[in-house]
Amino acid sequence: MEASAPKRGSVNMLWAKIETLGRHLRDLGGARSRTHGSRSLLTAAEFQEELAILGLSGRMFDPKDYAEALGDYLNISIAIHVIPDDWYPELLRRLAISGRLGELHYSEQLNLAAIFVPGSLPALVLTLTILHELGHLAAGDLLIEPSKEASGTHHRHVEEAEFATFSTKKGKKLARGLPFAEEALREREANLRASYALFAGCLGNDSPYAYAMYSVL
Question: How far apart are CA 81 and CA 118, in angstroms?
Answer without folding.
Answer: 8
